[in-house]
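How a chain folds remains the central question behind the approach discussed here. In the encoding step, the backbone of a single protein was reduced to a row of integers, each denoting a local shape. We regard such an encoding as a compact summary of how the chain folds. The sequence in question and its structure tokens are set out directly beneath this paragraph:

___
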Amino acid sequence: CLYNDCAGECGGSAVEDECGVCDGSGPETGFNCLGVPLAFIYNGSYLWASYYIQTVTIDGENVAADDWVGAFNGDVCVGSRPWDTSLCPTDICNIWLYINDGSEQTTGYMTEGDIPSFKIYDASENTYYDAVASEDIPPWFISQMEVIDNLNVEPDCAGILGGSAELDECGVCG
């Protein structure tokens, strides 16, 4: 035998996929090899702030354990996590939001005074939503810990979940 494939079969054709799995099919569509939704991938940096969120809901219902919450500075993801509250102390999870440390990997990340926004990835619908906080989101400062009561996705006036239609001054949705 001249060579064994990744499964140890002499002359076999099994190869490792991009995730390092022998004869695997690669990551699930829309995710990286670690199972992170592609829009929620970020790089850590050496300084952060932590935002604790007491509840995360979609149309008033708690999100499922396989749903994710991501924090953003503009359109740049600066932190994310699956929202499985059973893995968080007292069922309240937090997200670490990372600083722009001057490296190329953290371009667009948080700087002091920036106000983050949040998105929810609904795994059952394979959909990303902009989340609305129950109160004004505090600005980001190094090593701070903030608490947000609730992040929610709700229908707009046209009944579209996460939509952006609003009532005008005449009470017409559009």
In short: The longest strand covers residues 48-58.
